[in-house]
Specification:
The complex is a heterotrimer of chains A (about 220), B (about 220) and C (about 270). Helix content of chain A is about 80%, strand content about 0%. With about 220 residues, chain A is mostly helical. Chain A has a domain at about 35-170: MetI-like fold, CATH 1.10.3720.10. The relative contact order of chain A is 0.16. Chain C folds into 2 domains: about 25-120 and about 215-250, Periplasmic binding protein-like II (D-Maltodextrin-Binding Protein, domain 2); about 120-215, 3-Layer(aba) Sandwich (D-Maltodextrin-Binding Protein, domain 2), CATH 3.40.190. Chain C contains 10 helices and 11 strands. The chains are: A mainly alpha (about 220), B mainly alpha (about 220), C alpha/beta (about 270).
Amino acid sequence: MYDFDFAPVFQAWRLLAAGAWATVYISAISMALGLVFGIVLTAMRMAPVAALRSIAIGYIELIRNTPFLVQVFFIYFGMPELGLRLNAMEAAILTMTLNCSAYIAEIVRSGVESIRKGQIEAGRALGMSTPDVYRFIVFRPAIRAVYPSLCSQFILMMLNTSLVASISAQELTYAAQMIDNQTFRSFEVYFVLGAIYLILSQLFSLGLGLIGRTYFSYPTK
Amino acid sequence: MIRTFGFPEILFVLEGAKWTILMSLAAFVVGGLLGLLVALARTSGIRPLRIFAAGYIQIFQGTPLLIQLFLVYFGLPLLGVKVELWLAVIAGLSLHASGFLGEIWRGSIQAVPDGQSEAGRALGLGYASRMRDIVLPQAFRISLPATVGFMVNLTKGTALAALLGLTELTRSGQLMSNITFEPLKVYATVGLVYFAICLPLTLCSAQLERRLNAQG
Amino acid sequence: MCIVNFRKFAAAFAVAALGTTAAMAVTPDELRQKGSVTIGVQMDQFPWGFIDEAGQNDGYDIEVAKLIAADLGVTPAFFRITGQNRIPSLTTEQVDFLVPSMTVTEERAKVIQYALPYSSNDITVWARKDAEITGNEQLGDFVIGVNRGSAFEPILTAAAPAGTEIRGYDDDATTVQALLSGQVDAIVGSKTYGTVIQSTGRGDGFEAKYKVADNIQAMAVRKGDQEMLEYLNDFVTRHDAELDALYKKWIGSDRADLPVELPGVDFTGKAAN
């Protein structure tokens, strides 16, 4: 029979706390960069130039049809052969940004497609400049329409950070595996680790909901 | 000795792909059956069942797949269940799939208008018959694009079995990278194999979605 | 609050586990009867264990494992372990025993039962030629890579000055890869890293700096598998000459004299736990 012992795991709480902070940090940066790059991709995907559209589609499908883990290995271990050497944190953030932008582009596109042409024409008729039309009539309402899907995507990406431990990015899973290697309490370590991720995903969901209400809520007056 | 990434090495990687496909299929079938139960529980009239299913879905959607796999792998033996690594991995992937498919199918069951189920009840049909003959066939059609889309995620998810030591596609790549020291070529190849497996599913999902939108 | 809940959970879990029977110990006789043995081997550390051109397992540990299987008169099945699941694969009965070129440490000896050492290794610092590292003090000036989960990691942590930037990778080959691709300035690990670096054709840029520590390796069985342990201890003693030859063939140097006693480690399985 197995004796459960969570004490060694909790004793190492400092390691776990530092790891959790690193996870939040790389997730937040990648979310912001991923959103920006994702919107650029959406614009390319819907551009009147066929070449731009093809590049965007090819990129999006390549990313969406290969595992994140393979993408991380490719960027961290493969790219130095081509002269691009990134440290583990940079490689983690770059891969997460590239990965998440492809999904965001698809989500935002479906939002943009839900905007009626008439609205854009109405904006033009009111004398709005093209950037303003895009900002206020296309992207902001589009993001508002798909905000819940975006949030789920962000949380999936936060959970994906558990894989960057394999390239030595020192986040939550890396910290937990360090504890596992010292205590051999594998089940307890992964149980606590799962609980922390569950809490993190609830916190992210709360935080993203708050941001959504502040910036992307429907105008009430 | 250390060698170059050539034909025998590519063959070894392809052999790993066999496991990737087998694991994806097994996890999809087992996870699908479990997921159906989760979806039915989530939409049932019994409150404790609904709450349980909601918690179940929350746990699988709120924790990383890697951690789920490790917990099943380390947890099963503690429960006295001795299983081979690949069985533990399929069990973990199936549980993961059941959470996600449960949520996808909950959405599509709820998308079937209430009137349909009420009409069935007025005709004197029981729960099982209402679900089997009226609601589920329609829900199935609605859920098809998302379900096929999830199959892509599940296939990509099998890559994590590499971190538990199962010699599937990604682990085969790791092992070949370790003996050739040519990670760029190796991971590009591994990525292309995943792409070849997943792209048809993605295209199929998009096609189904268009058809559904056209009919709806 | 949290701890109380975990205790409750643990208690509930333990009740669930009570119904199951304790695992039967594996014995050599049982293996002979079954006609096969499952051996945990590490396949990501050339030349100890790797995949050959035909996609088969090969290397020093594989040949040692095959020798054991032949001695038992059974067919070997190899279970490819990783640094992370090496010990759990043994304790959860995925394998009958391990032949993993695994370092003997006091901490691990609390969880698994080591047989008498069959191999050794020099823990060595490998680095770019221009990196000025002559001793532990200089490690702090560089980014150091290591196989996390291996015994090299705690040795490095103890040897390097506080605050040294240490990067942990999943296995030996990935650690060497990190050095070759410039992700780290130096790595700490096996003396055979040199063979690997040489045969990638990039040997000119790197060299061994100094030896950090000795490293004694042993096979391992589950705690309580006394017959299996005694068989392996006997095997290691009886096959001295063959093991010497295999070591020379794969590792390229003579097998050192190995200790039969180490502080804090019991090779007899008889000390009170």
